[in-house]
Design brief:
With 291 residues, the protein is of the alpha+beta class. The protein has helices at 2-20, 83-88, 208-215, 217-223, 270-273, and strands at 21-33, 47-57, 62-76, 91-106, 115-127, 131-133, 139-141, 164-179, 182-193, 251-262. Helix 3 crosses helix 4 (217-223).
Length: 291
C-alpha cells in the first residue's frame, strides 16, 4: 500500500518532467563572415555541421535549450572576386566547437498549430584554432606565429587572441510539427563574436625582421603569401601596409535543420505537459495520465 501511495504521488511529477524535455539534433552548414570572405552571408566555402542538445519547455511558447554544435569555417583569397585580395593570397581553416545556453520563443502554440516561426538568443562559449597549409602541404597553426605581431615587444598594443571565447547567438527559424512528439525546424543562427581573428587576419603587416627574429621564418612565410603566386614579383609589404580590416569583428553562423524529439509517451508531447489537446494513455513508466 505504501509503495502504491508513493507511486501515485511521484508518477505525475515524473511524467510532466518527461513531457517537457526534448532531445534536439542538428544537421546543416557552417560558414563565417570576415576578411577572407567576400559576402556577409553565403553558402560559398561552407562546410557540413552537426549538433545535439536538450530543450526544456517552460510554457507552450518559451523554452530553454542547451546545445552543442561542431562545424568548420574557412576562407581563401583565391576564391575572391577582388583581384587585390587574390593577390594577397591568404587562407585559413578552423574547426568550431561550441556550447550554448539559449532561450527560445515560439510565436504560435504548437499544441494547436502545425507551423510556427521562432527566435532564440542566449550565450555561447566556442573554441577555434585557425590553421593553413604551407607550400609543401603541411598543416600550420597560425596563432603561435603571431602573424600580425601579437605578443611581440615591438607591438605592445597587439595582444595574443584567446582561442576560447564568448559569443552572442541570434537565431530565427520555422517549426513544423510532424507528430505529437516530433517537430522539425529550419533555422539560421548567427554568432556575434568579440574577436577579429577567427581567420588570423585583422590589421596591418608588421616589420619582417622583427617578426622573423621573434617567431622564425615560418611566421614570415605565413604572414605574407603573395609571393607564392606565379608571375608575382611583390616582396613582403612594408610595415604598416594593410593586411586586413579591423573595423568589424568576425561572425560565424549555422544554417540547417533541427529535429526536436519529445521524451515521454507516444502521445506525451508538450501539449500534454501544459494541458493541451494531446491527452490520454500512459507514459513510459506506466503511470496513468490525468484526463
Amino acid at each position: 500500500m505504501r509503495k502504491l501511495l508513493l507511486l501515485s504521488i511521484f508518477c505525475p511529477v515524473i511524467a510532466v518532467s518527461q513531457q517537457r524535455f526534448h532531445v534536439t539534433l542538428f544537421g546543416g552548414l557552417s560558414n563565417y563572415a570576415g576578411d577572407l570572405q567576400d559576402h556577409q552571408f553565403t553558402l560559398e566555402q561552407s562546410n557540413f555541421a552537426f549538433g545535439a542538445g536538450l530543450k526544456y519547455d517552460l510554457s507552450p511558447h518559451l523554452a530553454l535549450r542547451l546545445a552543442y554544435n561542431h562545424g568548420t569555417i574557412e576562407g581563401d583569397d583565391k576564391k575572391s572576386s577582388d583581384p587585390m585580395l587574390r593577390a594577397r593570397n591568404l587562407s585559413y581553416v578552423s574547426k568550431i566547437n561550441e556550447g550554448s545556453l539559449l532561450l527560445e520563443y515560439t510565436l504560435l502554440n504548437l499544441e494547436e498549430r502545425k507551423i510556427s516561426p521562432y527566435i532564440y538568443s542566449g550565450l555561447t562559449v566556442f573554441h577555434f584554432n585557425p590553421y593553413a597549409y604551407d607550400t609543401l602541404g603541411n598543416k600550420v597553426f597560425l596563432k603561435p606565429l603571431s602573424t600580425e605581431g601579437q605578443g611581440l615587444a615591438e607591438y605592445p598594443d597587439r595582444k595574443p587572441y584567446k582561442l576560447t571565447q564568448f559569443a552572442i547567438p541570434v537565431g530565427v527559424g520555422l517549426k513544423f510539427r510532424i507528430s505529437d512528439n516530433t517537430v522539425l525546424s529550419y533555422e539560421v543562427t548567427l554568432r556575434k563574436t568579440f574577436t577579429d581573428y577567427l581567420d588570423d587576419v585583422s590589421k596591418t603587416y608588421v616589420d619582417q625582421i622583427a617578426l622573423g627574429q621573434a617567431r622564425g621564418s615560418k611566421a614570415i612565410d605565413m604572414a605574407y603569401r603573395g609571393d607564392e603566386l606565379k608571375d608575382n614579383a611583390t616582396t613582403y609589404p612594408a610595415e604598416g601596409s594593410v593586411r586586413g580590416g579591423s573595423k568589424y569583428k568576425d561572425w560565424y553562423y549555422f544554417t540547417g535543420f533541427t529535429l526536436y524529439v519529445g521524451l515521454g509517451s507516444r502521445n506525451g508531447g508538450s501539449g500534454k505537459a501544459f494541458g493541451g489537446r494531446y491527452r490520454g494513455g500512459r507514459n513510459q513508466l506506466g503511470c496513468p495520465k490525468v484526463l
